[in-house]
Structures are given as structure tokens and as C-alpha cells.
Design a protein that fits this description.
Residues 11-82 form the MIP18 family-like domain. This protein has helices spanning 3-17, 62-72, 97-102, and strands at 35-40, 46-50, 80-84. By secondary structure, it is an alpha+beta fold. The chain has one domain (3-102): Fe-S cluster assembly (FSCA) (GMP Synthetase, Chain A, domain 3). The protein starts with a helix and ends with a helix.
């Protein structure tokens, strides 16, 4: 698999991540800055490193599972692993400009 093909699959994964919303904030998890890394292996396994807005987030159990299920729906993808980290902790500075505009921070 070429780097371009792997990158194209990574972009499809990001497109899927943009359809998942934090239930308390009307912005998708990608624009919120909750996704730290998306890695596509040569075997088309996906590893996503993400965080939550807080360790006590009400969707701490369900959101990573939703990410896993939706990313698994991408045709080319084999396995999906979602790892949650709080290092570094999420802050609103991690949001995209689009998210900040949407939430009135700009």
C-alpha cells in the first residue's frame, strides 16, 4: 500500500470522525480537538489516540465505542483501536478556529 493510499484512508477516517459530536457541545470531536492522532498501518488497522473534555465526561464509556464502530464502517478498514489519554489534558485552545467561532469564543 502506498503512502498516498494510506493517507487517503486516513482522510476517510477523519471524515467519519467529523460526524461524531460531543453530546454537550454542538461541535464534532475532530474540530473540538479531542482527536490527538489517527494512525493507519500497512495492514489497514486504525489506531486513534483521543481524549475527552474531562475525565468525568458523561460519555467516557460510550464515545470511544461510537468512534470505534463508526470508523470500522469505512470499507477499507480492518481493526480499530481507540486509546483514551489525558496527557496532555484537553483545553479549549485545542479547538479549531471553526469550533471556536461556532461556540462564540472568537
Amino acid at each position: 500500500m502506498t503512502d498516498a493510499e494510506l493517507q487517503a484512508i486516513g482522510e476517510k477516517v477523519v471524515d467519519v470522525l467529523r460526524t461524531i459530536y460531543d453530546p454537550e457541545i454542538p461541535v464534532d470531536i475532530y474540530e473540538l480537538g479531542l482527536i490527538y492522532d489517527v494512525h493507519v498501518s500497512d495492514e489497514l488497522d486504525i489506531k486513534i489516540l483521543m481524549t475527552l473534555t474531562s475525565p468525568n465526561c458523561p460519555v467516557a464509556e460510550s464515545l470511544p465505542e461510537e468512534v470505534k464502530e463508526k470508523v470500522r464502517s469505512v470499507d477499507e478498514v480492518n481493526e480499530v483501536e481507540v486509546e483514551i489519554t489525558f496527557d496532555p489534558p484537553w483545553t479549549k485552545d485545542m479547538m479549531s478556529e471553526e469550533a471556536m467561532l461556532e461556540l462564540g469564543f472568537l
